[in-house]
Automatic annotation (TrEMBL):
Protein function: CRISPR (clustered regularly interspaced short palindromic repeat), is an adaptive immune system that provides protection against mobile genetic elements (viruses, transposable elements and conjugative plasmids). CRISPR clusters contain sequences complementary to antecedent mobile elements and target invading nucleic acids. CRISPR clusters are transcribed and processed into CRISPR RNA (crRNA). Functions as a ssRNA-specific endoribonuclease. Involved in the integration of spacer DNA into the CRISPR cassette.
NCBIfam families xrefs: cas2
Lineage, broadest ranks: Bacteria, Pseudomonadati, Bacteroidota, Bacteroidia, Bacteroidales
SUPFAM superfamilies, sorted: TTP0101/SSO1404-like
Gene (name only): cas2
Entry binding sites for Mg(2+): D8
Cited InterPro entries: CRISPR_associated_Cas2, Virulence_VapD/CRISPR_Cas2
Keywords for this protein: Antiviral defense, Endonuclease, Hydrolase, Magnesium, Metal-binding, Nuclease
Names of required cofactors: Mg(2+)
Pfam families: CRISPR_Cas2 (PF09827)
Enzyme Commission code: 3.1.-.-
EC class: hydrolase
Protein known as: CRISPR-associated endoribonuclease Cas2
Keyword Cell inner membrane set for record: no
Length: 101
């Protein structure tokens, strides 16, 4: 089983930013890794184990914002298609040639 945690948390005030950072830190402490900026994933051996981690996520939910939790099987997770866009690369400046005497 895979647990995916999706979240959209406010970051307008200092308190919001602290709550956001604490939520992310708690996810990482519980074994979640970043899949994308606001999506964290964790592998679990069984549905029972997944329920333990979901309960932990619920225990440290921030006061404001939106958080979603989704459980999917290994097969479903393996069927995810990922696409990466190319980042434009500027050509290298020509190097200077040194003269040795």
């Amino acid at each position: 089983m895979w647990i995916l945690v999706f979240f959209d948390l406010p970051t307008e005030t200092k308190r919001d930013k602290q709550a956001y950072a604490l939520f992310r830190k708690n996810l990482q402490r519980d074994g979640f890794t970043m899949f994308q900026f606001s999506i964290y994933v964790r592998h679990c051996a069984s549905m029972e184990n997944a329920q333990v981690h979901i309960k932990r996520v619920k225990s440290f939910l921030p006061k404001y914002g939106h958080v979603g939790v989704l459980c999917i099987t290994d097969k479903q997770f393996g069927a995810i298609e990922l696409f990466y866009g190319k980042k434009p690369v500027e050509p290298n400046a020509p190097g200077q040639q040194l003269e040795l005497f």
